[in-house]
Amino acid sequence: MKTPADGRKTHPGASADPPETGGGGVSDKGGTLNSSPSRFGRAARLSAPGGFLLIFLLASLFGAAWVGQAHLTPAQTWAALRDGPNGTTDNDAILWSLRLPRIVLAALVGASLAAAGVAFQALLRNDLADPYLVGVSAGASVGAEGTLLAHKDGAWGGFALPLAAFGAATAAMTLVYTLARRRGRVLVTSLLLAGVVVSAFLGGVSTLLLQFSHPNDAQYLQFRLNGSLQDATLGQCGVTLGFLLAGLLVLSVEARAMNLFSLGEESAQQLGVETERFKTVLVVTGSLLTAATVAFAGIIGFVGLMSPHIARRLARTPDHRVVLPLAALAGATLMVWADTLARSVLPDGRELPVGIVTAFLGAPFFLSLLRQQGR
């Protein structure tokens, strides 16, 4: 991995030179870059892997619908889909009341965590950043847990839960970023240590809240916050979709600024990026995306770490305008299969917390990245 003169780490495959800027980009001669080749290049990088991931995601959604404790054949699954939510057969009830909300929520959660991962990796200019690793998930968990224990999760039309998680997640990310910043730079070791410290503290707060709760509430919350989609509803899918679309819209607008910010904060300022506003926008957006996932699915680690890397490998570019949509598709597909495995691997109707499945996948991935950065 290349290390430019200022000591910062770049993404795998990234160059220390300014990335493509599309229309209106600044050239080294003071003019603007020709936007047409850049747009055609982005379209070429996006179309093939994007088409592949989209087809794979759609196939995964359909395949996950017939996998579970009550096995449905592809023909039965298709028939239940045609019957719609008002169907009268057992298969209709299984699909529309149980599996479909869960599968759709899994995809939305995966896409949200992937987009949040892109945002935090761009903000911190480090490819080890992830909502789980930098304390954002722990912060959102405390906010969601407090709301659930107060039995206020249904307030404000169902938005009280994700909004409480959002407020706590934003506070946690701001604290981690402040602790990790030294002399204008965020080092890997500082980031990881600050994330560990904040996550440990918030984990203690979470445990303390459980101690003061009713035993039935404590048992339910402990399982749910470890990562579970078994209580998914179409209403939760709608709220999560709203958060996801808002986050993707903001990050798409900021994608060019993310490319410039990867050159360093000072360089980005010289190229016209309002860095303080930019950092605030990414903190808020990343926390927003994480909040909805923790509120409805609990803490699910490493999806936000793995998905941007998968996207960069497929696109063969660090350009955030290409990486962002690919990462969202990769994260959605990854979460669909992680949840499918979690609900089908154990006998007798039991299921694993989906956070355990992603941890088994993500921990070796993270260690591999950490070892590469150490070289």
Secondary-structure topology with pairs:
Layout: H1 35-65, H2 74-83, H3 90-124, H4 136-149, H5 160-180, E1 181-182, E2 185-186, H6 188-211, H7 215-225, H8 234-253, H9 255-261, H10 265-270, H11 275-297, H12 303-315, H13 320-344, H14 354-374
Antiparallel strand pairs: 1-2
Helix pairs in contact: 1-13, 2-3, 3-8, 3-11, 3-12, 3-13, 4-5, 4-6, 4-11, 5-6, 5-11, 8-11, 12-13, 13-14
What does this structure look like?
This protein is mostly helical and 375 residues long. It has one domain: ABC transporter involved in vitamin B12 uptake, BtuC, CATH 1.10.3470.10. The chain is built from 14 helices and two strands. It has helices at 35-65, 74-83, 90-124, 136-149, 160-180, 188-211, 215-225, 234-253, 255-261, 265-270, 275-297, 303-315, 320-344, 354-374; strands at 181-182, 185-186. The protein has a two-stranded antiparallel ribbon with strand order 1-2. A hairpin with a 2-residue loop joins strand 1 (181-182) and strand 2. Helix 2 crosses helix 3 and helix 5 (160-180) runs antiparallel to helix 6 (188-211). The protein starts with 34 loop residues before the first helix and ends with a helix.
Quick check: average pLDDT?
81
Strand content is under 5%
CATH-defined superfamily: ABC transporter involved in vitamin B12 uptake, BtuC
- How far the N terminus sits from the C terminus, by CA atoms, comes to 8 Å
What is the helix tally? 14
Output the helix-strand order.
Answer: HHHHHEEHHHHHHHHH
Annotation, overall tally of beta strands: 2
CATH architecture annotation: Orthogonal Bundle
The CATH topology is given as ABC transporter involved in vitamin B12 uptake, BtuC
Based on helices, strands and strand pairing, what is the structural class? mainly alpha
**Based on CA inertia axes, which overall geometry fits?**
globular
Largest sheet, in brief, is: 2 strands, antiparallel
Low-pLDDT segments, ≥5 res? 1-37
CATH level 1 class label? Mainly Alpha
Radius of gyration: 21 Å
Strand order, largest beta sheet: 1-2
Number of domain modules = 1
Helix content: 55-70%
